């Protein structure tokens, strides 16, 4: 059976304001700002962290549904810490709040996400 690859494409362009970029993904357009400014829009780092945490929410919800687990909701808080070099994260911490299942099931759901 042939393997099918998923391909996601985002196009980013400058808009004449240093530190700000216009991004397009499919028919969606959004502005991202550098963490060094102007920082009025969502920053590149915030968008990166949101991608990680939203992947956690959607993957865990899908797995719980497929496994017949009574998940009623969840939240992930993600924090990225950068040191002197702002281009690199020194640490990323995530806090999962999972509702509708006991602690053992919640721990299993996080393990499923971590294994992916």
TrEMBL record:
Pfam families: OsmC (PF02566). InterPro entries: KH_dom-like_a/b (IPR015946), OsmC/Ohr_fam (IPR003718), OsmC/Ohrsf (IPR036102). This is OsmC family protein. It comes from Candidatus Segetimicrobium genomatis.
